[in-house]
Design brief:
The chain is α+β, with helices and mostly antiparallel strands. Helix content is 53%, strand content 10%.
């Protein structure tokens, strides 16, 4: 069975969504990122991954895979009939990688990461200045299409849906981009996406009430 190390509402939510969309069973390990501990046994998360970041996907053979883009593509390929990634040889396979990279670098690392981890205005000035231009890219792309890649939900949508969810608590109202607002509403209407978010929101409340 696959195992996912996650933190509630962190980028690992996209991996949970992908697992649930694929219908894959997995064991989930809650990680306290600030203390770098695993809730199961209060162990040092750095013993699981020296990067000390989620997601970490433990494969059936015991190997560990990190980085959202890689984890999401592995999950998609573990259940190809679910259609969460274009098949090898399909030109859209590269479009999938393009969007996974864009969300990971231009929204997550360039804006969400500094917003939630850095406190001084100097560190936040540049990310804040860039986010409007950054979001104009998926906004224009989704103006006349339902999904990021092709005509069906892929792991790239799981990744972008997570990022858009975090924008509001990060101080960005996506209502100013109607296509993004409508897109997020469509994603949240999907049963697997809705259930994954509800699970992690409840876990976040539990963690907040009982911090490590």
């Amino acid at each position: 069975m696959l195992q996912l190390y996650f933190s509630p509402m962190a980028c690992s939510l996209a991996s949970r969504i992908a697992l649930m969309e694929a219908g894959l069973d997995a064991r989930y390990h809650l990680v306290h990122l600030r203390t770098k501990t695993v809730a199961d046994d209060d162990g040092d998360f750095r013993g699981v991954s020296p990067k000390a970041a989620v997601p970490v996907l433990v494969l059936e053979n015991g190997e560990r895979l990190t980085e959202s883009a890689a984890v999401l593509q592995y999950i998609a390929d573990a259940k190809p009939e679910a259609g969460l990634a274009p098949r090898f040889g399909d030109p859209d396979r590269y479009r999938l990688q393009e969007w996974l990279s864009f969300v990971g670098t231009e929204i997550h690392k360039a804006f969400l990461f500094p917003t939630f981890w850095y406190k001084d205005d100097g560190s936040l000035a540049k990310p804040r200045a860039r986010i409007t231009q950054t979001l104009s890219v998926p906004s224009a792309h989704l103006a006349d299409r339902e999904f990021l890649v092709g005509d069906r939900f892929t792991v790239a949508d799981a990744h972008l849906a997570w990022a858009l969810l975090l924008l509001r608590p990060a101080g960005v109202d996506i209502a100013q981009w109607p296509s993004l607002s409508a897109y997020l509403a469509r994603m949240q209407a999907r049963p697997a996406v809705r259930d994954a978010i509800a699970t992690e929101m409840e876990l976040r409340k539990t963690v907040a009430a009982n911090p490590a």
